[in-house]
Specification:
There is one protein chain. By secondary structure, the protein is an alpha/beta fold. The chain folds into 2 domains: 215 residues, 3-Layer(aba) Sandwich (Rossmann fold), CATH 3.40.50.2000; 169 residues, 3-Layer(aba) Sandwich (Rossmann fold). 44% of the residues lie in helices and 14% in strands. Helix 1 links the parallel strand 1 and strand 2. Helix 10 packs across helix 17 and helix 15 packs across helix 18. It is globular. It starts with a strand and ends with a helix.
Length: 420
């Protein structure tokens, strides 16, 4: 049985986001395809074992001992910053770089909070990973075209590659987030409803989402018992929560609206479908932009699998899929009246059942065994891309210094932090 090393930059523990869940599922499912899996993340083996994994099959990431950790692996799948360490420590190991989460583009939204350091680091990281990886995973055809352009700029799409692999299927493949064949048995999570209560789930708040249009739409609804559930991020130490703070400040000045918004702690990964089964719809609008064009929006796929109606902003993969399959409602970005109208339709039951059935069919196309097929093929016959040593190159990452205002705010924050 061939050994595969999985490296997740998000800790594998009961409370985690989409990347952690993705690697937990890989660790659970690749053995059925004939692989011996070793899962490496910043979490301790004890934390990972609480997710139902054998403690012997998980390791805590350590940069110094990484070559030893992956000894015996025939191939690796790596995501985020940990992929840098792997590529530098074991350049001979055939490695699939997981680009499912376009975090360089996401992190552009944190300029005000974090300055230019994330861009410098993320851009240099992508240059390293896309120049040295052997196979690349993405979530959609939109992402595949975007990353193909990046790969071309780094010399990875070259005459030899095009001659041997004209479709580039051996270089980059769509491996989106998968869905289970059967959902776990429902266990109540939110508790009993108030009389007449209708529940809307937004989910986690990141800086590229648009809660303001949602709030404006809710104020247009006639039903007083509408509740919007938003969720605090499980990794506040690494994920800025500026938008969540802005939401709390705005609600503090609008008490009537504040009664309609409920903040929840992050739901443990094993209970996320329980939450989706106890709300009336998922609504997570976004603003127009490159992040929205490239994102898959896993939360919508899981909602469809749970039979939860979804309302999405136009733009990006999920809006395209909803339209193609007739599986949900799509409204223009930043249009509260259009969003309110869609919410009224869902809450009134208009077209809910046929769209729910279409959603289940769309979910069926995203079952884990189906979406993992390209990765399984690579791991069954792992290979180092022979063309990269002759064609790939790494341009320098260039950016200006942070602005004076940001540097002063950072210096003040560090001073106050040191005093505290």
């Amino acid at each position: 049985m061939s050994r595969v090393a999985l490296l997740s930059s998000e800790p594998i523990r009961p409370t985690m986001g989409g990347i952690g869940i993705r690697y937990l599922e890989l660790a659970r499912r690749l053995p059925a395809a004939g692989f011996d899996v070793l899962l490496i993340s910043p979490a301790t083996p004890e934390e990972s074992a609480r997710c139902g994994l054998d403690a012997a099959s998980v390791r805590r990431f350590d940069r110094e001992s990484l070559p030893e950790l992956v000894t015996g692996a025939a191939a690796a799948v790596a995501q985020g910053q940990l992929a840098n360490d792997l590529l530098l420590a074991r350049p001979d190991l055939p490695t699939a770089i997981d680009l499912y989460d376009p975090w360089l583009i996401e992190n552009l939204h944190y300029l005000e909070s974090l300055g230019l350091d994330p861009y410098r680091n993320d851009h240099a990281t992508w240059v390293l990973q896309l120049s040295r990886g052997d196979f690349f995973l993405c979530s959609s055809r939109e992402q595949r075209l975007f990353y193909a352009g990046f790969l071309t700029a780094l010399g990875r799409v070259n005459p030899e590659r095009a001659r041997l692999d004209p479709t580039l299927s051996g270089l980059i493949a769509e491996v989106p987030f998968g869905l289970p064949d059967e959902l776990p048995e429902h266990r109540p999570w939110l508790g009993a409803r108030r009389p007449g209560e209708r529940r809307l789930l937004f989910g986690g708040l990141y800086d590229w989402y648009d809660p303001w249009t949602t709030l404006d739409a809710i104020e247009r609804l006639e039903a007083a018992e509408v509740r919007l559930y938003v969720i605090r991020n499980p990794n506040p130490e690494s994920t800025p929560q500026r938008l969540f703070g802005e939401l709390e400040r705005r609600l503090a000045s609008r008490p009537r609206l504040r009664e309609r918004v409920v903040a929840l702690d992050w739901v443990p990964a094993e209970r996320r479908f329980d939450l989706l089964r106890e709300v009336d719809l998922m609504v997570s609008p976004h603003r127009a932009g490159l992040e929205s064009d490239l994102a898959l929006r896993t939360r919508f796929l899981e909602a469809l699998a749970a039979g939860c109606p979804v309302v999405a902003s136009d733009g990006g993969t999920i809006a395209r899929l909803l339209r193609e399959h007739g599986a949900g409602w799509v409204v223009p970005p930043e249009d509260p009246e259009a969003l309110a109208e869609a919410l009224r339709d869902v809450l009134a039951g208009s077209e809910v059942e046929p769209r729910r059935a279409a959603g289940w069919r769309l979910a069926e196309a995203h079952r884990w065994p189906r979406v993992l097929a390209p990765l399984v093929d690579f791991l069954a016959a792992p290979r180092v891309d022979a063309t990269k040593s002759r064609f790939a190159f790494r341009p320098a990452t260039v950016s200006p210094p942070d602005g004076l205002g940001f540097r002063l705010r950072r210096a003040l924050a560090r001073t106050l932090g040191a005093r505290g």
